Model the fold of this input.
Amino acid sequence: MTRSNTRAFWLFVGPFAVGLLAFVYVPIGWSVVLSFFDARNTVTPTDFVGLDNYADMLGDTAFLRSLGTFSAFAVFIVPLTAVLSLALALLVNQITVMQAFFRSVFFLPTACSYVVASLVWKLSIFNGVRYGLANTVLGWFGADPIAWTASTDPPWYWLVLVTLRLWLQLGFYMVLFIAGLQRIPRHLYEAAWIDGAKPGWQTLRHITLPQLRTTTVAVLLLNLVAAYQAFDEFYNVLGTARGYPPFARPPLVYLYYTSLGSGGQDFGHGSAGAVLLALLIAAVTLAQGKVITR
Amino acid sequence: MNSGEISRRTVLNATGAAALASLLAACGSNTGRGGGGGREIQQWYHAYGEAGVQQAVERYAASYDRAAVRVQWNPGDYDSKLATSLLSGGGPDVFESTLQISAVRAGQVVPLDDLIGEVRDDFTDTILAGHTVEGKVYGIPQAVDMQMLFYRKSMFEKAGVRPPSTVDELIDAAKRLTTGDVKGLFAGNDGGVGVLGGPALWSAGLDYVTPEHRVGFDDPAAATAIGKLRELYTSGSLLLGAVKDWAEPDAFTQGLVAMQWTGLWTVPAVQEALGDDFGVLPWPKLTANGKPSVPVGAYGAMVNAKSERVDEAKAFVKWLWIERTDYQEDFNLGYGFHIPPRRSLAARADKLKTGVFSDAVKFVQDNAKSSNPPDWTSVMSTAFNDAVSRAVREGADAGTELKAAAAKAADELKRLYG
Done:
């Protein structure tokens, strides 16, 4: 019995564990090793440089700027995504007709590829010519067309990127919140009503939100990590064959160009940057966890 | 939900695919033809868009009788795939690529000076320089591509504007040609930041890197030249946010602009749409020191230094890209449109003797500048493009931005050349 259990365990877990080891843990470990070497155009470097790559990356204003931009982006996008997805969840959860329909409608964008959505946003909704969707709507009100992704003053590209990200991500976090909402025992609300709490803000504030605490923590943490790991929609909306502009450049996009850019590969600096980014995410996540759970 | 995870997965898939490809490639070479076991030469191309190129290169390879050659056609992100396969040691024996100094320093490619020998002078200098590092040639140029300025003759006539011969005339023309629905110029959705940085430097007699391996744009004139791009950007005469970017002719052929900066490769499409109603120009000069310019680039045939058949691979490259001028002509002119990198071939092609084609050939002879020289590394180009972008699109001080980029480029050159 025990032996067959063990065998079953390895049968089911084995392939996954091997894949995880080979394709996730070994590359992560290797990347840390590479970050201490001069690894240009090689993944088996011999030239140990100590902390030089780290010093270079910490002195690289472009890298620091992208870390700064995305810290600010996280401060903005994390609460926004959380609040909007909670609001959606509350609305969908309260609705009595066609609940499954609305739940699916809001969740569906999660199944859409980031690349496809980016192209739709960039090429059809927010293109800069007069017949683009957004510009057609503006045209009804007599406004001039706006070059959405090309305009830097004001930086309209943020509107494109943020709406795209929200459209793609809200549904998923909404589902997490709905699951959380459905686990709140009904009798808590009934007890509150008997005690004189009014449905609406009072029960939301004193019953729903405290009961959703664990879900909220999870949503915020996932969101924070996702904000620093932004890549796909930024790369596909703002990137061109000639590279990526210096604004709204996610750290991962910058590191991608550093390690695999067109002028040769530099895995040492790329890996050092990746390790620094991982440390930053860990630090911010821990700090956020401390603040929330206090 | 988590974009980082997706991108990591994509990268891993790509690596997996490359590993698989190299495994398959290894199988392929083991099954080599006849008695010559393991003597098959692997040759890689990226996927050319024009119909017929794949069949053509397979035909060339099949007609080589000194060794079996297997052509691999690589759709998708060819440069990354090639770079990965060269790292792993399982790459092709012969491949096409642009030359980067990092590949030379890492010992990934072999010098081909002995192949090019007596026909060296037949190659256009700028093109060959793009495949040369420290005096050694590492790639035999296959086909030249270039960028230039396309202008709509009828719109110029209607507005009474002459084709510009200086940058100031160009800015003036762009303004005068801008009417309600038509903009003066389209040079990319980034306002030309990506493609016009080089031409701006050349217009003032500067360059990315000097022949003495010094930074070429650490000069007050560079700020003036980039300032002109800012002037264009803020003049309201640039088309921004077009559906297709500068590399496609759509904005020009649809009449959204009077001028577009795009490439030689769009000529067939533009001719089909506009007939004779267009002309081509180099990017004009700015100062008396400067010159008109066209950025050029060429894929060259290279030999993998880790190949087990370096000598046979070199012999094949010599046969195809030096000796078989008939194939070279067919490759350049038979499908789509490129300029042969060899003067003798360009001179004898009838197709290149008329209209915009002869203009283009003349620009390549007289005004060519390497769009991406081998020692213009990604560190330098990122620093320079960032500076240009900030100065042009965000109105930062061009002098300060370029100074910072020059400092970064100087560090990189010091690392490369000491």
Notes: DSSP finds 18 helices and eleven strands in chain B. The domain at 7-145+296-370 of chain B is CATH 3.40.190.10 (D-Maltodextrin-Binding Protein; domain 2).
